[in-house]
Specification:
It is a single chain. The protein has one domain. The two termini are 48 Å apart. The chain has a two-stranded antiparallel sheet with strand order 1-2. It contains seven helices and two strands, in the order ααααβαααβ. The chain is rod-shaped and about 110 Å long. By secondary structure, it is mainly α. It comes from Nocardia asteroides NBRC 15531.
Length: 300
C-alpha cells in the first residue's frame, strides 16, 4: 500500500465515522431541547425575570424554532454526505488501476528484453530474412511506445487521486466540526441530568447557545456541501481525463487502430509461411534463407 493510498483510506474512514455521528445528532438536539424546556418550566419563577421581556413560554417557543433550524441543517448535510459515501473510494480505485498499468508496463518491458535477445536479423539474408526484419521493426516500435503510454496513463491516474486528498481532508474536518459543535452544547444537558437544579443564568446561556448554533450549523452545512460539490466536479474531470486517455490509445506509435502489430502485413496474402519461408536453402523457392554476413562463433 502506498502512502497516498493509506492517507486516502484514513480520510475515508474518518468521513464515514462522521456520517454516522451526524446522523445521530438530531435526536441528541431534540433531547437537549426537551430537557432545557423542562428546566425552564421547572424553574419558572427563577427564569421569569430573565425572560420577562417576552415571557418564558415565548422563549421556549423560540428555542424550539432554533432546534428545528439546527436539525434541518444537520439533516441536509447528512443527506448530502450519505449520498457521497458510495463514491468515496474512487481515488483509491484509481490508484489500483494506476498500479495495474505499471504492472503491464513491466510485462511489456520484459517482453522487449526477450525480443532483443532473440534477434536473428544479422544472422540471415534473403527475401524471407527481409520479411523477418520488417516484422521485427513493426513490433519493436510498439514495444518501445507502449511502456511510455502505460507510464503516462499511470501517472495521470495517480495525479487525479492525489488531487482528491485535499478535498477529503477538508470534508473530514468540516464534518467532524459539525459533530463537535453540537456535542459541545448538548452534552452538557440531557434528560438524565434535567433533575439537577440549574442556575437561571445558565438556562439563559443555553438558550442563547441554541440560537448561535443555528448560524454555526448553517455555515458548516454550506461548507460541507461546497466540498462535496467540488468532489463531484473533480469526478467529472476524471471522466474527461479517462476519455482523453482512451483517445490516446489510437495514436500510440506502433499500434495501428489500437491493435498489436501483426507478424505479416496485408500485402502478404500467402500466409505466414510464405513470408518467412520454410528455413530451407536447397529447394530453390523464393523463401530460401541464406547465411548472412555476420560471423557466428560457436562457443563450447
Amino acid at each position: 500500500m502506498t502512502e497516498l493510498t493509506k492517507q486516502l483510506n484514513d480520510q475515508i474512514t474518518a468521513i464515514r465515522t462522521n456520517i454516522d455521528d451526524i446522523g445521530n445528532l438530531p435526536n441528541k438536539v431534540d433531547e437537549f431541547c426537551g430537557a432545557l424546556a423542562l428546566s425552564m418550566r421547572s424553574n419558572y419563577a427563577s427564569v421569569t425575570g430573565i425572560f420577562s421581556a417576552y415571557g418564558t413560554e415565548k422563549a421556549i417557543s423560540d428555542m424550539y424554532e432554533d432546534r428545528d433550524n439546527v436539525n434541518a441543517a444537520i439533516r441536509e448535510a447528512w443527506t448530502k454526505l450519505d449520498a457521497t459515501d458510495p463514491d468515496l473510494e474512487v481515488p483509491v480505485q484509481l490508484l489500483t488501476i494506476s498500479d495495474e498499468w505499471r504492472n503491464f508496463k513491466g510485462l511489456v518491458q520484459a517482453a522487449r528484453a526477450d525480443f532483443d535477445n532473440t534477434d536473428l536479423s544479422q544472422n540471415w539474408a534473403g527475401d524471407a530474412a527481409a520479411a523477418y526484419v520488417g516484422i521485427r521493426n513493426r513490433q519493436k516500435l510498439a514495444l518501445e511506445s507502449v511502456p511510455l503510454a502505460c507510464e503516462q496513463i499511470a501517472t495521470s491516474l495517480g495525479n487525479l487521486a492525489s488531487s482528491e486528498l485535499t478535498l477529503y481532508v477538508e470534508l473530514a474536518q468540516k464534518s467532524r466540526e459539525m459533530v463537535t459543535e453540537v456535542t459541545a452544547l448538548v452534552g452538557d444537558l440531557t434528560s438524565s441530568t434535567v433533575k439537577i437544579v440549574i442556575n437561571p443564568w445558565d438556562i439563559a446561556e443555553y438558550v442563547d447557545s441554541m440560537a448561535n448554533l443555528v448560524v454555526t450549523m448553517e455555515n458548516l452545512k454550506t461548507l460541507i456541501m461546497g466540498v462535496v460539490s467540488a468532489m463531484a466536479t473533480s469526478s467529472a474531470a476524471k471522466i474527461a481525463e479517462n476519455n482523453m486517455i482512451g483517445q490516446s490509445y489510437s495514436i500510440i506509435d506502433g499500434l495501428h487502430n489500437n491493435k498489436w502489430p501483426t507478424a505479416v502485413s496485408a500485402a502478404h496474402t500467402g500466409g505466414l509461411r510464405d513470408v518467412i519461408g520454410d528455413a530451407t536453402t536447397s529447394d530453390g523457392d523464393k523463401s530460401d534463407w541464406e547465411p548472412g554476413t555476420t560471423v557466428v562463433v560457436a562457443t563450447s
